[in-house]
Design goal:
Blueprint: H1 7-17, H2 27-33, H3 49-69, H4 72-78, H5 83-91, H6 110-123, H7 125-137, H8 140-146, H9 149-161, E1 165-168, E2 184-187, E3 193-204, E4 211-218, E5 227-234, E6 240-245, E7 256-267, E8 271-272, H10 278-289, H11 292-314, E9 316-317, E10 320-321, H12 326-355, H13 361-391, H14 394-399, H15 407-415, H16 424-435, H17 437-443, H18 453-470, H19 492-516, H20 524-553, H21 558-582, H22 588-599
Parallel strand pairs: 1-4
Antiparallel strand pairs: 2-3, 3-7, 4-5, 5-8, 6-7, 9-10
The chain binds flavin-adenine dinucleotide.
Length: about 625
Amino acid sequence: MTQQVTEEQARQVAEEAREQDWTKPSFGKGVYMGDLDISLIYPQPKLDPEDVARGEAFLTKLRTYLEENVDPLQIEEDAKIPDHVIEGLKEIGAFGIKTKPEYGGLGLTWNYYLKALAVAAAWSGSLVALLSAHQSIGLGEPLRIAGSEAQKKEWLPKLAKTHVSAFLLTEPDVGSDPARVQTSAIPTEDGTGYIINGRKLWATNGAIADVVVVMAKIPKREGKRGGVSAFILPYDAEGVTVEHRNEFMGLRGIENSQTRLKDVFVPNEALIGGEGAGLKIAIQTLNTGRLALPAGCLGSAKWATKQAREFASERFQWGKAVGKHDAVAQKVAFITASTFGLEAILDVSARLADDNTNDIRIEAAIAKLYGSEIGWTIADELIQIRGGRGFETAKSLKARGEKPVGTEQALRDSRINRIFEGSTEIMHLIIAREAVDEHLAAAGDAIDVKAPAAARAKGAANALKFYAGYAPKLVVGEGNDPRSFAEFGSNAKHLRWAERSSRKLARSTTYAIARYAAKLEQKQSVLGRIVDIGAEIFAVSAAVVYAKTLETEQPARAKEARELANIFALQARARAEALFEEIFDNDDDANYAFAQKVLAGDYVGVEEGVSDPSELSDLPMFIEDSQKV
Ligand SMILES: Cc1cc2nc3c(=O)[nH]c(=O)nc-3n(C[C@H](O)[C@H](O)[C@H](O)COP(=O)(O)OP(=O)(O)OC[C@H]3O[C@@H](n4cnc5c(N)ncnc54)[C@H](O)[C@@H]3O)c2cc1C
């Protein structure tokens, strides 16, 4: 039977797995708390010239390798990355880009790892999925986070050079809510290991992996906490079967599996980080790995910018280049400025990741959310700019003698970014949770309807004390002084807006907490807008800061960067202002109530008049029990 988990239990499990402490400063947290501290992101940490030299050398090698050996049209046609490409990528070190040299990797910085993913993404979406699933969520990352020295010594060198890896968390009936993991790991009677049973779905690289990390639940027993745990699983172990290679609307070349685990034995040494540590490891893996996905979005966005510019300036209709028609020009402006904004977000976050002095969990989460959403719109707008050619496949364009620009493929490939490694809806919840952390610490029990009366009263007293000190700080700040942030020249005004908006956002959040109390977590659309405004504030700050950094690091690009930051900031500010308008003035409640009636079948009349071909099969909507192996 499928184990049912209540909403509250699911939340409790997620809460326990969350990184609870803030031991380092966080710029992102300040954005949501009305305390925009630009000094946390500017001056940006300087790049070590040696790291840059090694990083640039690898990027050149990677670009050359792709150009000379990899045909992206063939990958799309065959829905497969050829074996020789996978072997070639291993040979140039692309499987161990950030693995330390003592474990056989290239030891490049996060900054260059992400740049490499962007290069791969611009060439082929399936390639970036292969490399990033292996290095960002595959076995190497959990080992880096929680592995023992012996585990690292045994596996990291293999992962850097020869072994493809995958991350097996999702199950047929366990998606966004990992509290329900059904795959079981039962300790053997002789105490030497565990027997794993279950079915894992959608594991990227899972169809060709050599070794994987698998999440499975150990039962609670005397003296042992049990719980979801992470295991190293060599894929040639007895009982491992790839049941199906999944096919998708995009990323046609990925080796994504449904994998069955039947009575698979793993020794005690395969357990990573102890019993019950699995969800924490999974969440931390996703937290750090989260920068990889937007790096892929950035690669595609850079490619899209080039395609938009070339087409909009070369294609003439109604007497002028289509880019001279205002409707198309707006799209070119959006694509180009957004690409710069995304590059800024990644550069700011990646340098902080390498510097390791800041907690970047919010920045990385925003990068994932923002990159996947804006990347999708970029791909969509590029199709519109290219008109019918945007909808035509690269293969077809080539066959009739035109440049094979795979615009429709870019859209299909990018769609999944809004779903995996934390869907947009889940990212909103994760960021909102981090954003209100201090409020919860202050007022937690006061807004918890289930807390005993005494605890609620104590919570209310704490909250009163906290807000008495906090609220006055949200009234005036640097952003009200027209002379502030002067070193950023003409873009200083955008930082002043960011500072003022950060305080306005914190005031809105405080009001939302007071207005909805414990019900706030159910107000997902309100929280979503709060999160999205914070994302725009972070993006504007990053763009201005990055442009300023480029002024010194690449003086030839100073003017260009300043102008790009300015246009991006104007666009981002307009989006944020529209969201501010809607935080509380919206139709959320009416829509929610209406949707519940839709689910109850009150409006099935709307569906009448057409047939549903999926009804020709009598298959269920989804398999309900991962344990049925
Ligand atoms: C191509 C591809 C590659 C993948 N690679 C991997 C991999 O390598 N390893 C792995 O373990 N998994 C992988 N996944 C799984 C992926 O991470 C999941 O699809 C994702 O977690 C969402 O789960 P789900 O599809 O079951 O959606 P569901 O959880 O069923 O969610 C359905 C919808 O409800 C929303 N929703 C769910 N809960 C909430 C909530 N509390 N509040 C608001 N909205 C909510 C979701 O956002 C979504 O829109 C992959 C999936 C695909 C398609």
